[in-house]
Amino acid sequence: MNNSFGQITIAREILLIETVQRGDLDVVVDGYGKLISNKQLLISTLTNARVKEIVLKPGALVEKGSVIVRLENPELQQQLDDEQQQLAQKQGNLRQLKLTQKRELLLDEADLAQIKANLQSATIKRKAEQQLLVKGIISTLSFEQTRLHEVQFRQRIEFLQLRTEQLREVHLEAINIMEQGINQQQRRVVTAQSRLASLDVQAVFSGVLQKLSVELGQNLLAGQTIGLIGSVSDLVAIIKVPQSQAQQISLRQQAVIDTRSDKITGHVTRIDPIVTNNTVSIEIALPKNLPSSARPELSVDGQIIIAKLNNILYLKRPANIKSNTEALLYKVDKTKHQASQQAIQFGQQAGRYIEVLNGAKINERYIISDLVNIKETVSTLNID
Asked: Strand 380-383 to strand 7-10: parallel, antiparallel, or no bridges (unpaired)?
């Protein structure tokens, strides 16, 4: 020490005095940012419409199915009526087709029944004439004519049965074609109903209405954005850190998010490659069970733990002291009334604390106040 600088006296109450300690410290990168919804969904209109009623405003909690705004478009009701009318007509045509087909089948069945009856009569006649032929009562020509009639009736029965089978196949295909048309029309009706129902714009999941982009009476085009819904419980933190420190951050590193009311532990899941205003955005994944203080768009502070220092000497960081530097501090003696300059080698900064590499021992007390001007002229302080 150079005692030629002289001494001055400083009141104790204006000094910050801290003790050198030993223990474990976390090396952190500090940042600031906000909580955002991890699940977000833009809501848009499916068709041209006019804003009839605004039911919910930004910040409102919504449940799945909650109506946010109501729109109106009279043309959609007319379109639905037209599609339903066409569906009813197609269904009526199908019923008429089935009745016509049934009538055709009944006629075929009547013809078949008549020919079967004729065949039965021809068979009886042929059996009777066969006996008469043996006795020589009728001629062979007459018998052959009767037998030929019986064969013809059998052939006509086979033909009618084949025709009826083919007619059934034709009928089935005609029904299938018409039912396909009905199914297509039913889909048109469902689409029209859906477009009409979409005039009541609803939330598709529970969350918070973060943004509403329309005004009462506004005319909207199909696909135009109406609002933004974000999840309430499924949140992530976006923390901005200095570009100079971002290179020390890597994925999976632990982080602590401070909501001012609670501290939430998470981990790094994404590092934005784009630098904005000398800061880098870091995404922090958070647990599912969050405290009540956590909500979307809440401003928060964040600490990302980039390393852990175990069993080291450390001191609350003095004013104007940076990592991995050497500086002069005033060490308070045992009387607590005097302090003398001591050169200390510092290591890594850990939040409010800094690692002591050399020059200080555990339980020694140092003034950490900003005394840069005094250090240049006075080596020893009197503390009153």
From this structure: parallel
Q: What angle do CA 48, 54, 56 make, to 5 degrees?
A: 125
Place of tokens 């009928």: 171
Q: What is the pLDDT of residues 364-376, one digit of tens each?
A: 999 898 887 776 7
Read off the DSSP letter of residue 215: -
Residue 81: which of 189, 215, 223 has the closest Cα?
189
pLDDT in tens, 211-230: 999 999 999 999 999 999 98
Q: Which domain holds residue 214?
A: 51-71+199-230
The C-alpha atoms of residue 218 and residue 138 are separated, in whole angstroms, by: 102
Residues 245 and 291 in one domain: yes
Residue 365 and residue 241 share a domain: yes
For residue 187, count other CB atoms closer than 10 A to its CB: 12
**Which residues on neighbouring strands pair with residue 323, listed in sequence order?**
none
Give the mean model confidence (pLDDT) for residues 124-153.
85
Are residues 257 and 376 both part of a single domain?
Answer: yes
**Contacts (Cβ under 8 Å, ≥6 apart) of 373:** none
pTM of the model: 0.58
Same domain membership, residue 79 and residue 24: no
